[in-house]
Structures are given as C-alpha cells and as structure tokens.
Amino acid sequence: MEEPVQVVTVPLWFDLMAVFAAALFGAVHVRRRKKFDVAGMLFLATCVGIGGSLVRDILLNLRPVALSKPEYLVTAIGAGVVGLVLADRIVHVRWMYNLVDGTALGVYTMVGVTKALDVGFPYVGAVAVGSIAAVAGGLIRDILSSEVPETLRPGTPYLTAALAGGIIFALCEVFGVPQTVSIPGAIALIIGLRFVSMGFGWQTPEPQAVSAAISTAAQTTPTVVRKIPLIPLKAPKAVAPIGRHLHRNASDEVGKAAPPDSPPVQD
User: Fold this and answer.
1) pLDDT in tens, 140-182
2) Taking the CB of residue 65, how many other CB atoms lie within 10 A of it?
3) Phi/psi at 225 (5° precision)
C-alpha cells in the first residue's frame, strides 16, 4: 500500500498563522456570547484553532500535523491566552473583531487550497478542501457552545466568502500569477467581503425566501395555454346479454320453421 506523501511546500509560519487567528477568534467569540470558565475558554479556543487543520489533513489523507508537531498546540493555546486577556477590548472594537474573523477565514482557506494543490488535487477539489477547512473551526466552536453553526444559518456570507477567495486563487494559478501576489490578494478579498457584507447588512437567503421568489417569478411569467375543445363523451348503449340474445333468435327460427297446425280431418 502506497504511503501518503507529507506536504512540505506550505511554510510552517503560514499554517501557524491560520491556527493563531482561528484560536484567537474562537476565544473572543466565546467571551462575547457565552459564560465559560478559563479552562473551558482555552479548551474551546484550542479546538477551534486546530480543528480546521485536522479536518484538512484528514481530507488530504495526510498525517495530522496539528497533533504530530507541538508548535500547533502551543500556538493555539497561546492564542487562547491572548484572547483571554484582550477579549474585552477586541469585542468592543468592531473593526478589530471583524479583522480577526476575516483573517482566520482567509488564511485557513489559502493554506487548505495550496496544500490540496501540492498533494495533486484538481482545482475544484482544492477549493472545496480549503473552504471546508476554513469553516470547520467555526462549526466546532458553535457545536461546543450549543449553538446552531453560524455557517449553516442565515447571516453575513461566511462560506461564500471562503469559496470566492479560493476560486480567485485557483484562477490565478491557472493563469500563472505568482503566489506572492495571488495569496495575499485572495486573503484580502475574503477579508473585504466580510467587511462589506457586515457594513451593508448583506444576508444569505433562507430557503423559504428562495422558494417564494421562484413561485412569484413563475406566476408573473406569461404562459401560452393552448385551448383544446372538449368533446363530450356519450354513454354506450346497453347491450343485452349474449346468452339471452341467442336464445331469442333460436326461438324465432323455430317458430318460423314449424308449419301451422292443420285442422282435424272429419270423417
């Protein structure tokens, strides 16, 4: 059985940057919405920080680096401590909160896409892996916090932003744009989409809204109905049973064939 090849082309500092940003945002998000103790907050921040990396490596059939290299756990715990100290300040500064969120989403997306391409995934598969890895930490955070995952409920575009950044990066790879330009550009696009969507109040549509829009469009679209005249159907005449009909015909034939009774001869 062929052993999976470990990817080494993605710089370690770039992957650790994704872990740090995700763990920091996890700690700040939990501090903002839930009442956790110190141990619970650090535990959840660590899970959010390395969650995307674990999911990504599993999808790529690689040995999870988040558990095989101590730098990942140390980075995630350190980010949790930073979040524990600075959470109140970051929460009250809205742009800083959104910046941490967008940075975690963008960096994790780019790390996932580049690793998938290095392994040999096609562009579509690489974008899917990067997007899934980017939102995996948020899914873990919301599940551990007993909330409906933000990625799955109506709100500002989250998964859509990751997909957009991954697609732009893949197109840059197709046209030969240097990664020193395409990677920062894709991360900036993801962060920008998060800021713009929050600033303008963009919301992902609910299924009911999409169904209502389709129904409204279908009702307003002019349709040509071809009128076909209806021909009334007449009920068939009742037919006598075959046996009775044959019996009546036989009786008539017998009556016709028999001669009339001759009068008696008198001597």
Assistant:
1) 988 888 888 888 888 788 899 999 999 999 999 999 999 899 9
2) 21
3) -105, 120
